[in-house]
Amino acid sequence: MKITNKNLAALMISTLAISSAAGQTYTLVDLGAFAGQSEAYGLAAGSVPLGSFVNPDSHFQSVLFTTPESVLATVGGYKEQVAFTSDASGRVYGTSYSFGDLTPSGFIADSSGVSLLAPFAARASNSSGVVAGTSYAADSGLRYLPRAAVWNNGTLSVLGTMGGATGQALAIDDRGWAVGSSTTANEASSRPVLWKSTTPTDLGTLGGTAGQATAIYATRIIGHSQNASGVRRATQWTIDASGNVISRTDLGALAPSAYSYALGMNSTGRIVGTSKFHAVLFENGSCVDLNTRIPPSAGWTLEKAWAINDAGVIVGGGSYLGFPRAFMLLPNCSADFNHDGFVNGNDYDEFASLFDVADIGADFNHDGFVNGDDYDLFAEAFDAGC
Amino acid sequence: MNIGKFGRVIKMGAAACALLAGVASASIVGRSEDPQRDPYVVMAYNDLGMHCMNNDFSQMMILPPYNTLHAQVIRRGVEPDIIETGVTVTYELPSNTHATDKTNFWEYAPALLGVTLPPDVGLGGHGMFGTMIRNSARNDFEAVGIPVAPIDDDGRENPYPLAFVTVKLNSTGAIIAQTQAVVPVSWEMSCNLCHTTPGESVATSILKSHDRLHGTSLINQQPVMCASCHADNALGTSGQQGVPNLSSAMHLAHAPRMGQISMENNCYACHPGVRTNCQRDVHAARGVTCTTCHGDMAAVGNPARNPWVEEPSCAGCHQREEFEFERPGQLFRNSTGHGGVQCMTCHGSPHVIGPAVTATDNAQAMRLQNHTGPLNDCLVCHTTQPDEPFEHKR
């Protein structure tokens, strides 16, 4: 495989063989041809990664990793700016701040340019542009403690805590439900929480004291929580229509007792994150090292997968020659089942051999079951070619 | 209750204890808006003003994540007392609550240091939140080696996260004082300014250069801890006989090569940094540079110097009758004055002597006395304005 710099057209036709067992493979796109470090946190429409890079003045600047890249102007006199998310209208949201300052500001970038939203660190938006984040405004005791906050149409609302002094909101869905973490009374612990209104609900942990929710979609909330041994493990909370927790699931890790974090999720329930500081995909009840789903790439380690969209495109941050670097993973042609670069009878034979014995490798739609749906989807992809 | 040595010690009688119990039972969970009305005050501070750490540990390590936070608890009064017992002091980093997803240190600690650390726990045994330990020699509480990385939970780089320190009375569990202090950490060490070989990592370039110049084979021994051969007081390693200490080796090896660098402050080529600006105190604001206090690279790298122990002295510049700027033979960061109060309690950490140029570093002073700079409002600790002249060195 060739790692190219933002040459998406070339990448889309590059194919490569992978010797690993069946499973979605990816083409690695190096997003960080900039002189300094970079990180991709989210995906805008059209699978456009967004994030930040270190500009020639050594400061973080927000960017859409298009071809050529679209660098967003830093506004408000802040020195650093990071783009995190976008809404259905293509508006981009993020945070402007300066090292050592107490009050960051959310920003919005749209066709009219970049402007400041409100004094909070904007982290995530829903499809209609309601933004979740963290306010650092001084309280009555002149303390600059983080508090979960939601910005909606010009109004910033600070959300409640679990009885402690602090909180952070890291994601929000189209119902306006936000998730994140908040401390309990006497600052005893920092719990994973759901805000359906300004009052938080404790989502519970895997048996430990601390946790944090990082994404929410429909009946699924993901994040990480400590188990009884105190190890943070990627966690999925299943909730009912009222937001009550039905179950908590340990999503696994790259080793039985290792730590893991679930960071991003798409609408089909595919989850990405990190474990043992390798970017991972949580699928079919296991934790898969995404470094094994790309060809061996000299100098690259995928460390943290921040987001995945419904097209299966994944973005995050890794290390390239020892430097922090943004990456994007493009799913390879799914009908090329044996990953030899061609779609032909060999792919059909390999899929069929697994399907006939109900091997999970034939779980083509990644729903955890091997059944006719997988066969139909594979046949459709096979007929379509790549 | 063990009373500290702040000012004239008041023997606590039954009445005083009853009064204290009454205060405690009233509980200050809903804190007053004016800390100067509270019966207790806590001041927290980092020991160095900046902790550098590697961004990637897969090939080499200069410094691990290791940040030390101190706090002094004072019971306010006409004659205040430093409190060392009867309270529990906890810390948290509300915007930076976990670390294992921010650095690969835990993956390489066994190879580098011979230890397998629990996730999110640092070399000092402390995690990202927890209880500070009493250090009676310092009259304070401390959390040694907090493994904080310069990334907030939302993914932003932030070298100046604010720790939130809470003091609870053991007898009731009531919160009696809280404060915020910066726990500074940065990995902005710009080795790549020079160590750039196409197709190689910065660490590979460094290790190869070392092998070429010094006949070593570090490239085959990865991950390499520099302090395993070069003595380093920061890590407490004795190094190998005949090998210069790490500070000396680094500064002397690079001094003749700094001509390639053209920066406003060349120290920021290796120390953090252009973006981090770790020297951010009143001295920086007044044009005092790194070399003004530390000397040039040759001076810092002098093999006869004992790094981390022989450091610039405040008294090297500041002289004032009846003021003692460090205890004899002590560094600023380990010195006390005014009845056992740590110098840093009032003045801030090294490199962050107040007023700092950064608002986060000034937040504590602003909250306690409504202005930046050293804590010089007597009423931060005293309930009445003392009649006696201020005694700095007492």
What does this molecule look like?
The complex is a heterodimer of chains A (about 375) and B (about 400). Chain A has about 375 residues and is mainly β. Chain A has one domain: Methylamine Dehydrogenase, Chain H (7 Propeller). Chain A contains three helices and 28 strands. Chain A has helices at about 10-15, 345-355, 370-385, and strands spanning about 25-30, 40-45, 50-55, 60-65, 70, 80-85, 90-95, 105-110, 115, 120-125, 130-135, 145-150, 155-160, 165-170, 180-185, 190-195, 200, 205-215, 220-225, 230-240, 245-250, 260-265, 270-275, 280-285, 285-290, 300-310, 315-320, 325-330. Chain A is globular, with a radius of gyration of 21 Å. The two termini of chain A are about 15 Å apart. Chain B has nine helices and 15 strands. Chain B has a domain at about 190-275. Helices cover about 20% and strands about 15% of the residues of chain B. In chain B, strand 4 (about 65-75) and strand 5 form a beta hairpin. Chains A and B meet through strand 6, strand 14 and strand 26 of A and strand 10, strand 11, helix 3 and helix 9 of B.
Largest beta-sheet characterization of chain A = 4 strands, antiparallel
Run of helices and strands of chain B: HEEEEEEHEEEEEEHEHHHHEEHH
What distance separates the N and C termini of chain A?
17 Å
Number of strands of chain A: 28
Per CATH, the class of chain A reads Mainly Beta
Radius of gyration of chain B: 22 Å
What share of the residues of chain A lie within helices?
A: under 10%
Low-confidence stretches of chain A: 1-21
Number of domains of chain A: 1
